[in-house]
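Two folds, back to back.
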Amino acid sequence: HLLASRSELLHELACIRAVESDILTLIAFFYRKWPIKRLLLILCGGEFIKNGGGSFLWFAPGIMFFYLLAPFLAAMKKKFGLKAFAGMICAWFILCLSLQYGMHYNKAFILLNRLPVFFAGMYYDDISLKRTGKFRLPADIIVLAAGLFIIWKTGITRLNKPFADMYYVIAIPVVLAVTDIFELISEKINIVPLAFIGTVTFELYGLQMIFGYDIESRILKASGNAVLSFAGVTVKSHTNPFSSPRMSRVCKHLLMFSF
């Protein structure tokens, strides 16, 4: 959504995200004690293409893929409007079907099935429920409830039709509804923690992929309480010293120094 509404920031954001994803990958490299060969394969996308998703196998190359794609999609949106959105969805669907049934390749769906929510973000102002006026909140609640019901009834393990990892796609209505509900709340109440978290979601996502599982496992083992372990991971993630806007500023200074 930011890329679509602030296209002049595209190149700066792409560079910052590239440096940030490389830093996060290096943190994972030292923490997980990967061999150098694996680190290089992950950074260039070789291991993702070969082995598919899972933590940093897709994260670093995936971020660059989205930023390379963004200028083309933004140009399509500017020229064709909502018709381009329909075209993007059709192209994504045909590509996925071709890979699944034509090439019998399903390793990349952890990334490809994030494309629809990427498209939805670019067109958020056009397709969000904020356009429903006074019925906005009821519409959000209906979409959220329907989305959660579909996820509950299908289950993650059964969402592999018409192609693999479809649960990323099925969850999109829930994501859009929750986003709009929080936007509604923020219009009435200034929730500082949410505003802060909104500035560091990229860093939090990367850090939870490195540390989240180990921290949660230790808390769960010590407490025997799944709810407590989840709360502990959440607090730990949000108070991690790397999870601050400083990381973006440091990356920006590094880029300025490099050029």
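---
second:
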Amino acid sequence: RGAFRNAILRDHFKVIITPVGKMPVSTSYGELKPAMVRGFYWASLGQLIPLFARFLGGIFLARTIDPVFFGQQALAYATTSLMWAFVMLGEQPAILRRKTDVDEYLSVILWTRCCIVFLLSVAITVLWMFELLPGSRLVQLHALIFFFCEVPSQIASIYGIYLYKILNFKALSLISITSSVFGASVACLLAYLDCPVAALMFLIIGERLMIATLTFVAVPRWFMPRFNAILFLDFIHFAKYLFATGVIDRIGSKVVDISI
């Protein structure tokens, strides 16, 4: 009965009861329950506090900055988000379901993410050089800045999934809270000092860079990018279905944002 209960928790509630490593250790429901309660507590804080920080910061910026600047930065960021729609291949479910060769698997996924980021960096640079990005030349430059400032957070997100796999919800929540409060606070300060463009850009850039920095600091182990043909093909075979079903929705939503 205990084995059946653990199987239900693992398969339907996505609770990872096998620690990272090669020696699985059985965990009872009584031992999991306190961890689940703490995880729910920290996960809730990690969502509510950043939500209020962004909401209050957005109200202050809306009352301080001319709407023209909002429109320019929104177009620049929507363009960048459209490029990043191609970077998500379903890494999170792939990592969470993995129970063997986890270290090597993470290195392969990190190698894949680095390759995709490099290709996207080349693509957006070429588009910027030939003025093929939407908006004026200044908006195109801001889009380029948004993109390259978000590169560290895109790499760090793989380590963030690792923190989620080992159930370190406290670290994830503190990263989310600190980065959102930092970005919103500095953005409001810049808006108060009459630097509207810098304020709107730092609202996003500051949060992304802080997320990347804190994630690299909080992760207990670092994994270097490494290619393994067998694990790479296994990941691609699993990720291609998730990518095909999700990329259309992501691209569609970003195209709507640009058109608006």
